[in-house]
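Lab notebook page, bench 4
Experiment: in silico fold of construct C2
Operator: M.H.
Input chain length: 150 residues
Purpose: comparison with the prior construct
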Amino acid sequence: MGPNETGTTPERSRTPPTLGPTQAGKWSRIKPSKPALARAARAAGHRVALLSNSFGLDPFNPYEHVGIWDPFDVHVVSELVGLAKPDPAIYRLTLDRIGLPAERCVFVDDHAVNLPPAAELGITTVHATGEQEAVAELEALLGVSAVLAA
């Protein structure tokens, strides 16, 4: 196990990082469907993982800030594990942590390049090109209904 796989991060300054326009925009555009779908899936008995290519959690957790940390059973953040999508190893690590076989999992991503490695492992994939389409496809695959705020 590598040093980052323990969930700890190297000591850093506690000054919050400055987010560039692309990063800040990404976090301000989190769709309410993400936490709503995760909550609905968990309520139906599914285990739910967050797999993200990200800059990490230190000195603050941006996922928690926008409400998409708590709805997930497992969190795999690229900086913390030393891997990133589309490396197949990060999908295997996520499967190990969630404790499910690939054939029982669904992976959603808005970047098409990240889907083939997951599919090659036997994971069902959804290319999220639009929020409504992705939500509908996930609801059908998981047998859940995400209640979204109007």
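Observations: Confidence is low (pLDDT under 50) at residues 1-30. The first strand starts at residue 49 and ends at 52.
Next step: discuss at group meeting.
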